[in-house]
């Protein structure tokens, strides 16, 4: 005997989400049946709305309802700095610190030869065009993740942009605040010695 | 800065699902934005449909589109046996074996004093009424989970139903098929000795 069609379809939809297998999908589907009708309706509406009402900012690639996005159109922000991140989530994490007041550029990916992802597959061309058009931009801060792919992308961007006379910098790597030195991995320790700051 | 409203709402909806925290919800929401429009629409529709088109069978508590459910209305099934399970998922697991051809009764829960769940909170009254009305039912097989709460519920049902002259049995506990004796826990081993079968 199969599950009734409505729940079978819902299970099928849940399994399309990343990291959710058939067992979890079944659990979620049964949970959904017991949820308040209002919550289910909101859920369905927000799915549709997230797909329909959101677009990527044509300047920086941020996720937004209005194009260009609120950051690109904010004249009070420092127009001379562009922080390059891999994903919109990274932009949000940096914004939530309330300490960076410049502009952003979202690559929507990272250079990854193993995954077959080259410079043309991520938002690099639009960054170059942006830098050519906008003479106010003096510095590009590369905020890709501190892993092999993020470093490779940072290196690529640095080689691409420096000849054009743009200052390229990289977010600092070192000990996480609150961490113990004896638990830190070796490479982090080496980086933290190399990048030591004057007191 | 906050996420744009459509995605913030979607993150909020995802966090309402069990076992999904804010980090996973954010990941799922961003994934949703990049999904095919068709898949998102299907997802939203199946959410609504699962909530709207499904009900619980008024006889056995199974999840169904038509009340009473396909199992309760199937005259070819053995009308003399009722297998009592905790959840619809358990019913489906048993049905998928294609070996049990009697009826079911879904408790939608289990006796759990710690969780404040007593006999009135689960589908026991409807089972008693059903047994009183239907004289064809001769045996009740208790198929609650083989843990403390499942055992307690089985014991409760046995004491409740036996005085009414109904045969009450319990699914066998013992070694899982394919398992190694030296990896089995002690209680399972004791149960498998106690419940040994003649060869």
Q: Return the domain count of chain A.
A: 2
Give the tally of β-strands of chain A.
Answer: 6
In the CATH hierarchy, what is the class of the largest domain in chain A?
Answer: Alpha Beta
Q: How large a portion of the residues of chain A is in β-strands, by DSSP E?
A: 5-15%
> What is the percent of helical residues of chain A?
40-55%
The termini of chain A sit apart by: 71 Å
Which architecture of the largest domain in chain A per CATH? 3-Layer(aba) Sandwich
Q: Largest sheet of chain A, described in full?
A: 4 strands, parallel
Helix-strand topology string of chain A: HHHEEEHEHEHEH
In the predicted model, the low-confidence regions of chain A spanning at least 5 consecutive residues are none
Strand order of the largest sheet of chain A: 4-3-5-6
Describe this structure in words.
Two copies of one chain form a homodimer. Chain A folds into two domains: 1-35, RecR Domain 1 (Helicase, Ruva Protein, domain 3), CATH 1.10.8; 76-199, Dna Topoisomerase Vi A Subunit, Chain: A, domain 2 (3-Layer(aba) Sandwich), CATH 3.40.1360.10. The longest helix of chain A is centred in the N-terminal third of the chain and has 17 residues, at 37-53. Chain A has helices at 5-15, 22-34, 37-53, 88-95, 124-133, 148-161, 186-194; strands at residues 55-56, 63-64, 81-85, 103-106, 139-143, 167-170. Chain A is globular and about 65 Å long. By secondary structure, chain A is of the alpha/beta class. Chain A is built from seven helices and six strands; from the N terminus they run αααβββαβαβαβα. In chain A, the strands form two sheets. Chain A has a four-stranded parallel β-sheet. In chain A, 41% of the residues lie in helices and 11% in strands. Chains A and B meet through helix 1, helix 2, helix 3, strand 2 and helix 4 of A and helix 1, helix 2, helix 3, strand 2 and helix 4 of B.
């Amino acid at each position: 005997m199969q599950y009734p069609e409505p729940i079978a379809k819902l299970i099928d939809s849940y399994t399309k989400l990343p990291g959710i297998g058939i067992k979890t999908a079944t659990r979620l589907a049964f949970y959904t049946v017991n949820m308040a009708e209002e919550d289910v309706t909101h859920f369905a509406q927000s799915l549709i709305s997230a797909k329909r009402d959101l677009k990527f900012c044509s300047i920086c690639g941020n996720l937004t309802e209005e194009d260009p996005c609120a950051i690109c159109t904010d004249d009070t922000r420092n127009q001379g700095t562009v922080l390059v991140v891999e994903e919109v989530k990274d932009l949000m994490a940096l914004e939530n610190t309330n300490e960076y007041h410049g502009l952003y550029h979202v690559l929507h990916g990272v250079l990854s030869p193993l995954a077959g992802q080259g410079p043309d597959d991520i938002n690099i061309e639009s960054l170059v065009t942006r830098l050519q058009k906008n003479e106010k931009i003096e510095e590009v801060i590369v905020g890709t993740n501190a892993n092999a792919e993020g470093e490779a992308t940072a290196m690529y961007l640095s080689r691409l942009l420096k000849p054009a006379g743009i200052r390229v910098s990289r977010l600092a790597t070192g000990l996480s605040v609150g961490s113990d030195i004896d638990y830190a991995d070796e490479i982090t320790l080496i980086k933290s010695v190399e990048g030591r700051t004057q007191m």
